[in-house]
Write a structure and sequence with these properties.
CATH superfamily: Metal-dependent hydrolases
Number of domains: 1
Mean pLDDT: 83
Order of helices and strands: HEHEHEHEEEHEHEHEHHEEEE
Organism: Glutinoglossum americanum
Helix content: 25-40%
Shape: globular
Structural class: alpha/beta
Number of helices: 9
Protein name: Dihydroorotase
GO molecular function, one term: metal ion binding
Distance between the termini: 34 Å
CATH architecture: Alpha-Beta Barrel
Keywords: Hydrolase, Metal-binding, Pyrimidine biosynthesis, Zinc
Length: 316
């Protein structure tokens, strides 16, 4: 899967990506992240890969300091299927992350298995996929209050409650936007530097997404990431959800590139200042499936069969 997907990263208009560690098994050790980085870089030499570690009970302050020294590990993340319910057990880790400048990527929408019950004033309520994000938000506020200097990304924000929580936390808390069309108006209420695109490209083999017992969530978007964002904005304008005059070159460059890099504290890599992307209508259509050379791995892309803008890289 890595050999199939890594070379396609730049096709989506990205020369820098944040790599999640939720493999099978997950990336939990610094040495594993370094090895993973080496393999990815060989497959896509024109891309800068920002690595992360999986948050687990074995992670400690010493490992965080070691990760920071690598200069290629930028954060620690939970899994979208295994949220952290008791954050206090990781306070020493968060303290070390704050001190070393690493970013925490939280999946507030995660649901544990079996479902966990939170105590509420009116009784108890089981955590489900529909209420997990709002029920997690008190933990976000608690964490931010304890470590105000810790940069936090709240992944997969999909509710008004999540948006308001990020806004109340201040400039060290951000989130990547995927639900552009439905919530674009909410951007006006959040500091622009905290709005970043999140492709959340999740390639899964087709066998894991159909038939009895299929549980793999997520869509494969990376090879058309930028074009999908532009297409969503165009649809938003057509539907009246977005004002055309608000979609400027400056706002696009900030949302797609500058704001995220600024939040992660990253300047453009050497030699990258003279490149840009160009999108054109050429009748390109997203294929029905993306396959490895031997056909052993097949991945179904998001919005397969639909026309998409063609993307090319230019030097200037």
């Amino acid at each position: 899967m890595m050999e199939l997907c890594a070379p396609l990263v730049k096709n989506g208009g990205c020369d820098m990506v944040y790599v999640m560690p939720n493999l099978q098994p997950p990336i939990t050790q610094v040495s594993d992240a370094v090895s993973y980085h080496e393999r990815l870089s060989r497959l896509a030499p024109g891309v800068t890969f920002l690595m992360s570690l999986f948050l687990h009970p074995g992670l400690d302050a010493a490992a965080i300091a070691e990760a920071a020294r690598t200069k290629i590990i930028y954060g620690v993340t939970t899994n979208s299927q295994d949220g952290v319910l008791d954050i206090e057990q990781y306070y020493s880790v968060f303290e070390a992350m704050e001190a070393n400048g690493l970013v925490l990527n939280l999946h507030g929408e995660a649901v544990s298995s079996p479902p966990v019950e939170f105590a509420k004033s009116d009784g108890t309520a089981a955590v489900t996929v529909l209420n997990a994000e709002p029920m997690f938000l008190p933990q976000l506020h608690k964490l931010h209050a304890a470590f105000p200097g810790l940069r936090i990304i709240l992944e997969h924000v999909s509710t008004r409650e999540g948006l308001d929580a990020v806004r109340r936390c201040g400039p060290t808390v951000s989130f990547p936007r995927k639900d552009i069309m439905q919530n674009i108006q909410a951007q006006e209420k959040v500091t622009p530097l905290r709005l970043t695109v999140g492709s959340d490209s999740a390639p899964h083999p087709i066998q894991s997404k159909k038939g009895p017992g299929a549980t793999a969530a997520g869509c494969f978007t990376q090879p058309w990431c930028t074009a999908l964002v532009i297409g969503a904005l165009e649809e938003g304008i057509d539907q009246g959800w977005v004002k055309e005059e608000d979609v400027t070159r400056e706002s696009l460059e900030g949302f797609l590139s500058g704001y995220g890099r600024a939040f992660y504290g990253i300047s453009r890599p050497p030699g990258a200042g003279g490149s840009r992307i160009r999108l054109e209508r050429k009748g390109e259509v997203i294929p029905g499936v993306v396959s490895s050379r031997d056909g052993a791995i097949e991945v179904v892309p998001f919005r397969r069969g639909r026309e998409i803008l063609s993307l090319s890289w230019e030097c200037y």
